[in-house]
Design brief:
The complex is a heterodimer of chains A (142) and B (221). Chain A is 43% helix and 18% strand. Chain A has five helices and six strands. A six-stranded parallel β-sheet of chain A has the order 3-2-1-4-5-6, sandwiched between helices. With 221 residues, chain B is α/β, with parallel strands linked by helices. Chain B is built from eight helices and eleven strands. Chain B has a six-stranded parallel β-sheet, with helices on both faces. Chain B has a five-stranded antiparallel β-sheet with strand order 7-8-11-9-10, covered by helices on one side. Chain B is elongated and about 65 Å long. Classes of the chains: A alpha/beta (142), B alpha/beta (221).
């Protein structure tokens, strides 16, 4: 990501705020949306993007975030269904060129990946990493 | 017909009862354990406590054999995902979803839901159309609100009274489908004249509703 991008992030929890801080520090334009105003406390003092309080499953809120102008949409709210809906609305209604969604339920993640939504499943990733570490330590002690 | 109802509240109970009385086989999925317990006592239907957008729950509710899924929870995102998973993972042929934000009506259709309906939208349309028109006794939206059926009573002095359909020239997108005259019902043709006391069954698109009413009721519409 060499040039400066305009990025909309849905959800300012642990992952959302981490991404917002990092991407803002790299010089990208960032808008973060969260239902709870207190969620924005997790943003750094140096965070130079915009904060928007609202429910991202309302199209009006996505319009206010200027999603139609976004280069990238990261749907990382707490609820899987919010992320799956927002990602599809971003892709199909607002024609955002890159869209990614965090989905914690592996069954739902698998299904939506097959429907063409880019998804990341923290449950599967953590599971694989743990098993891989176990396998390696098993080899080491053998 | 096997129908899966996803959601909560008393509306789920009444819908399930109605479906059973019509010979259908509903299955209910609700997140609220207390409600599930009550429902399983009240209706002869499969009641599952869980998340209707979790694939194993849908499967346990019989999604592989279901002919329709009706998602009526108060959260649009849950209704969307439940319907999409039912259609795409389990091949349910018809999906119907309640939308709470009326703007999501169009969004849901774009995202492949067969029928999306908004109680906000339906109520707002009913109130707008009823306001001020005493002659209009009832209204019913059909085809997801693309057609409205209204009943209009003609009293003396209205422009339509005494005129034939041909003279009346109802605007495009509107149709007088039937005339109720006393006990008789007639399907009118061009030369037929409307009379005082007639009740007209009118079909209109939302755009031609107001012009059609003006044509029949004049300044009173």
């Amino acid at each position: 990501m060499a040039k400066s991008l305009f990025i909309v992030i849905v959800g300012c929890g642990r992952l959302g705020s981490h991404l917002a801080n990092g991407l803002s520090a790299q010089g990208h334009g960032v808008v973060v949306i969260d239902l709870r105003p207190e969620a924005f406390a997790a943003l750094d003092a140096q965070f130079s993007g915009f904060k928007l309080v609202g429910d991202a499953v309302e199209s009006e809120i996505l319009r206010q975030a200027r999603l139609d102008k976004a280069d990238l949409l990261l749907a990382v709210a707490e609820e899987d269904n919010v992320n799956l809906m927002v990602a599809q609305v971003g892709q199909k209604v607002f024609a955002v060129p890159r869209v990614m969604a965090r989905v914690a339920d592996p069954a739902r993640e698998e299904a939506y990946r097959q429907f063409g939504i880019q998804t990341v499943c923290p449950t599967t990733l953590a599971g694989e990493a743990l098993l891989e570490t176990l396998r390696r330590s098993g080899e080491a002690t053998r | 017909m096997k129908i899966i109802i996803i959601g909560g509240g008393r509306v789920v109970y009444f819908l399930a009862k109605l479906f059973i009385s019509k010979g259908h086989h509903p299955a209910i999925v609700s997140r609220d354990p207390g409600e599930c317990e009550r429902l399983s006592r009240e209706v002869k239907a499969l009641v599952l406590c869980g998340d209707g957008s979790h694939p194993p729950v849908l499967e346990a509710a019989g999604a592989r054999e279901a002919e329709a899924v009706l998602a009526i929870s108060p959260r649009d995102q849950d209704n969307l995902v439940a319907c999409q998973l039912a259609a795409k993972m389990f091949g349910v042929p018809r999906t119907l979803a309640l939308v709470n934000d009326p703007e999501n009506l169009e969004v849901f259709r774009q995202l492949g839901i067969n029928v999306a309906f908004s109680t906000t939208h339906i109520m707002a349309t009913l109130i707008e159309q009823q306001a001020g028109f005493d002659e209009i006794v009832n209204l019913m939206p059909l085809a997801q609100g693309k057609v409205t059926v209204s009943e209009v009573a003609l009293h003396a002095g209205l422009p339509a009274v005494g005129r034939s359909l041909a003279e009346l020239a109802m605007p495009p997108g509107s149709l007088i489908g039937a005339v109720i005259r006393g006990e008789a019902v007639l399907v009118p043709r061009g030369p037929d004249r409307l009379a005082e006391g007639d009740r007209l069954i009118i079909l209109t698109t939302p755009e031609s509703y107001a012009p059609a009413m003006r044509c029949l009721l004049g300044d009173e519409a």
